[in-house]
Amino acid sequence: MVENNIYDAIVIGSGISGGWAAKELTEKGLKTIMLERGRNVEHVKDYVSATKDPWEFPHAGGRTQEMIQDYPVLKRDYPLNEKNLSFWVNEKESPYTEEKRFDWYRGYHVGGRSLMWGRQSYRLGDLDFEANLKDGHGADWPIRYKDIAPWYSYAEKFAGISGNRDGVPSLPDGDYMPAMPMNIVEKDLAARLRTMYEGKRYFIMGRTANITVPHNGRANCQYQNRCWEGCNFGAYFSTQSATLPVAMKTGNLTLRPYSIVTKIIYDKDTKKAKGVEIVDAETNQTYEFYAKVIFVCASALNSTWVLMNSATDVWEGGLGSSSGELGHNLMDHHFRCGAGGRVEGYLDKAVYGRRANGLYVPRFVNIDGDSKKRDYVRGFGYQGSASRGRAWRSEEEKFVGGNFKDAICEYGDWNIGFGAFGEILPYHDNYIKLDKDKKDKWGLPVLSFHAEIKENEIKMRHDMQHEMKEMLENLGVKDVYTYDNVYGFGQGIHEMGTARMGRDPKSSVLNGNNQVWDALNVFVTDGAAMPSGGCVNPSLTYMALTARAVDFAVSELKKGNL
Amino acid sequence: MNRREALQRVAMILGGSIVGANLFLEGCTQPATKTVEALFDSKMIDRLGDLADAILPPTSTPGAKEAGVGNFIAVYVRDCYTEKQQKAIVDGLATLDKTSKDVKGKDFASLTLDERTEVAEKLYKEAEEYNGKRWERIKDEVDKNTTRQNELVKPDVDYEPEHWFHLFRQMTLTGYFNSELGLTKALRYVKIPGKYDGNYPYKKGDRAFA
After folding, report:
1. CB within 8 A of A425, min separation 6: which ones?
2. Mutate: best of B202, B206, B207, partner A, most A CBs <10 A
3. Which of helix, strand or coil describes residue A324?
4. A346 shares contact with chain B (CB less than 8 Å)
5. Backbone angles phi, psi at A272, to 5 degrees
């Protein structure tokens, strides 16, 4: 078979960012090939557990000793489970090196982590875009909120984000479909909190990429809360449910699974990239594909890996390495700490349906006059919910037997709990590099990790627990507890940075349109591009950055500038 | 006997009472290191169900044994437990008749369901006490082996297991509330709720949704 190897555009990766790039490029008429390193996952057909009942899982969804052996990283947190194991990377085939601890939870298949993502979708605001400039950490964002706001709207309207326009000063509102409802306890506590803190603190309904009304042929959320097994209703945004079908429909997309991009081919005469080299993951054959523009959307750290592995005699440290920042300023959101407690009353109420969403508490620290109180910069938000779990003992304090059994089939008390997600500053010495001594299944060098949270984050973690403790106690919540379960860098699954945007090629890898300074027809639009991380879930920002960058790229192509 | 045959035999032994037998046959695609029988013979699997029933007996809703918990535990112990935990369960079950005689003067098998629950109560208390002492024994070691902030993840430590009845009770609860009968008869299982109502009327005695 002779494979066509000349396209208008190449997209590396098929997750949230790659899917968006493919949709936008093909809709604008560009013949595009999307290269995905892993297997194909077809919408509905390959959601192998989505329609199963709990009793069809031999280990109740848990983990076997064999799984624990096979997944030394995944086992460190919730992702190792029986229900969607096939969506997580085979760790034996794709190892990496931890000079310092890094928990890297990857999805190597068509759709990437758009199939398992948390779906919380918030905008960054100028609080975030101006942060680096104001406190001097990291490089200034080359864009401001006004530059990206229309693209947030564009992304939200297509993806289908449900939420309220809450009017919270620290968190810009977007274009939403109707929000999911709060339950009775959440509603009451949210109203009381707002009064108590005079509009400075809020419990708002989570803004999520689960649709609440039918949208673009997708059915609305059915409240099963098993999104990460894949949704047969297409009720949450994923490559498969949203961007891929649109891109396919244009007739301009070629999707090639099992295609590991090994390097971007740089042409020093034109000072541009002319294409990419891949290794076929099944056959180990190498191929080249050529195009006018290349969108690198391989997930933050693999996007940077591709750049690093594209070393030439011009750029020995890889494409985009001239600033010395490639691989540096690695970020995530630190979490696994917070507070919770028991809510008295409401015993005549329960909840019907399983809502794959919860409350959000927008950042309130280091805003306005608040910063005087803090010994750290930036801030955090909370995600949580109130819920009514089953009782766990009978009234006569029995823990076995018939009365016990009947009692635990009924509801017990209402509880409320929150976990905080905090910003990690962009530190130059948090970095990844190629480990050429260790190879993956395909003989390619792996990444080695060197990152840790520092004093600013550790001080923040105190407040991440105690601010919520205080709020809950003020709201009359009983038995309030705090927790800090120790955070492993990467566990937030919000890898960001390592190829940051900036205003100056001397201090950044990408410009304000996500172009690699050193090769202007190469765009990096996923988490790698982030100059700072903010404290909100980042994927919506990747969607907006990607759509914006494609719009720019195509207009530059038309002008003959690329 | 290969693994599939072994599992089929287990399914046969348990007959109609086992829920999802064929499904777990299909579900376990990885070769196991041990067949169920290497740990539990057919009589023992039946006994697992009896002890599970002492914890979650039939009331107005089905008991654990009918819900297939005995078989669930056999599979779970085989696949999900460390060898130390497996040994704790096997050795613990071997002491069941002794405890039963101490409490009720008879073998466990000769007891009525209520009497079996009394034995389970005794075991529950014993397990609580045992686990408390166990924690005192291992807590320094646990502390030493806990991965702290910014440290490389320390290797798993195979600590002495919790009391066997504690493990058994946990598996009983997990198995029952993931079984078809447990979910659909003891709880109100709604596979596809279709909507969310956070202000749903509830009165004592209503079963919880699942």
Report:
1. A137, A138, A331, A377, A378, A454, A456, A457, A532
2. B202
3. coil
4. no
5. -135, 170
Query: Chain A neighbours among B 84-113 (CB < 8 Å)?
Result: none
- Does the distance separating the beta carbons of A390 and B208 come in below 8 Å? yes
Q: Using CB atoms and an 8 Å cut-off, which of residues 469-508 of chain A contact chain B?
A: 486-489
What DSSP string runs through A48-104? TTTT--GGGSTTTT---HHHHHH-TTGGGSTT--SSSGGGS--TTTS--EESS----
Q: In chain B, what are the domain boundaries?
A: 3-128+159-186
* CB-nearest partner of B198 from A60, A183, A222: A183
pLDDT in tens, A130-150: 999 999 999 999 999 999 999
Cα–Cα distances in Å, from A275 out to A9, A265, A292, A310, B167?
9, 5, 8, 11, 57
Closest partner residue to A54 (CB to CB) among B30, B76, B178 is B178
pTM above 0.90, yes or no: yes
- What are the structure tokens assigned to B32, written together? 């196991």
Report the sign of the C-alpha dihedral through residues A229, A234, A239, A245, in that order.
positive
Q: What is the CA radius of gyration of chain B?
A: 19
pLDDT, residue A368, reads 81
List the single residue in A353, A400, A453 with the smallest CB-CB distance to B55.
A400
Assess whether pLDDT exceeds 60 at residue A317.
yes
Answer whether B182's CB lies under 8 Å from B75's CB: no
Length of chain A: 562
> Chains A, B: CB contacts under 8 A, how many?
176
Q: What is the pLDDT of residues A461-488, one digit of tens each?
A: 999 999 999 999 999 999 999 999 999 9
The backbone region for A134, taken as left when phi is positive above 0, alpha when psi lies in -120 to 50, beta otherwise, is alpha
Residue B191 touches chain A, beta carbons under 8 Å: yes
* pLDDT at residue A436, as a whole number: 94
Secondary structure letter of residue A44 according to DSSP: T
The whole-number pLDDT of residue B173 equals 98
